[in-house]
Every structure is written in structure tokens, then in C-alpha cells.
Task: inverse folding
């Protein structure tokens, strides 16, 4: 079973999976590791705001996610800090966030079809107000988050519209929760997903 944590930058996904790492040893954690692709994009001097370059960049991300999924399914339960649903969303919606209407679906048809076979069983969307997200960002000096303001203003509204209301998406509002409580709630959600999954297998 694959579970995925979703939400805006700085909402607390990585903190939550770190809590799981310490308190739920029966869950495999699959982190989003992106240094290799970032380095390749720089090496090839690709610009994500140019159509042809964007397609090349997203091919790399989509293919990488398929490989990551195949590693994750070797475990009884894996939790992803962003899963395949994120790369599908971003691939189709980033152009809209910069005000362009690029043809993506057909241009990346093969890669999108492959990644759509790698979707998580369930998704937990961690949501917070803009004020809380900005405070989280300011309190975290371990990351630059140069893309934060664009993500908050243009991508997050699209993301909420994309995910909210789906039958396999649960929402956790974290505005009034401290770090440990978020971790506890995420673990409780994971445990319930595992229990439900096991119960369905017995039917």
C-alpha cells in the first residue's frame, strides 16, 4: 500500500514523515530526492519557462517517479513525501500558474500514462492558512524555498481545486496544531489506512 502526504511548501510534510520514521518502524518512508534532476537541468541549461525545455524536464521527473514507485511497492506500506499524484498535478498545472496554455497531455502522453499507474492508495492533504505557511517558512532556515511565493499564490489554489473532493483524499488542517500533534495525527491516519486495507483483504 502506498500512502502520500500532500500540501503546500512549508506545511509540515517532511516533519510528519520524520515523526513516522521515529515512531512507526513498520512504515517505509519514501522521501522525494531531487538533487540529481536539478543538477541535470542545470548541466543542460534547461529553462522550465520555455515549452520544449519544460517537456524535457518533466519527462525526467515523470520517469523518476515511476522508478521511485517500483521501489516503494516492495514494502507492505510506504508513505511518500509527495507521490506520483504530485508530479502529475505539477506537470499539467505549472504552465497555467505562469499564464500559458501549453499542450502537455499529448506531448507527454507516454510518461503521464506510466505515472498514472503509480498513484497512491490514499492521500492526506495537509492544509494551512497563508499566514501559518509563511510563518513555517520563516522559521525554517534549512531551506531557501525560492519558489515559495509563486507556489502559494498561483499553484496552491490550483492544487486545492485538483485534490479536494476526491474520494481517496483526506484533509488535515494544521493551523492550530503543534509539530508533535501533526505527527501524531498523521500516524493515526496511516494506522487507520493500514487497518482498513487489511480488513478489505480479509473480506
Result:
Amino acid at each position: 500500500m502506498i500512502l502520500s502526504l500532500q500540501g503546500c511548501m512549508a506545511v509540515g510534510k517532511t516533519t510528519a514523515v520524520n515523526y513516522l520514521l521515529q515512531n512507526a518502524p513498520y512504515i517505509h518512508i519514501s522521501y522525494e530526492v531531487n538533487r540529481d534532476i536539478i543538477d541535470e537541468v542545470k548541466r543542460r541549461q534547461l529553462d522550465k519557462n520555455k515549452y520544449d525545455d519544460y517537456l524535457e524536464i518533466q519527462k525526467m521527473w515523470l520517469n523518476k517517479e515511476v522508478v521511485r514507485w517500483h521501489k516503494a511497492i516492495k514494502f507492505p506500506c510506504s508513505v511518500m513525501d509527495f507521490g506520483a499524484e504530485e508530479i502529475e498535478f505539477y506537470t499539467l498545472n505549472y504552465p497555467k500558474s505562469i499564464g500559458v496554455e501549453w499542450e502537455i497531455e499529448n506531448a507527454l502522453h507516454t510518461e503521464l500514462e506510466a505515472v498514472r499507474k503509480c498513484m497512491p492508495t490514499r492521500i492526506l492533504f495537509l492544509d494551512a492558512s497563508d499566514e501559518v505557511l509563511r510563518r513555517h517558512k520563516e522559521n525554517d532556515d534549512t531551506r531557501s524555498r525560492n519558489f515559495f511565493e509563486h507556489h502559494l499564490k498561483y499553484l496552491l489554489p490550483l492544487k486545492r481545486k485538483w485534490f479536494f473532493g476526491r474520494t481517496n483524499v483526506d484533509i488535515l488542517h494544521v493551523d492550530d496544531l503543534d509539530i508533535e500533534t501533526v505527527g501524531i495525527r498523521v500516524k493515526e491516519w496511516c494506522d487507520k489506512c493500514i487497518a482498513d486495507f487489511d480488513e478489505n483483504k480479509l473480506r
User: Anything to note?
Assistant: The longest strand covers residues 2-7. The chain has a mean pLDDT of 93.
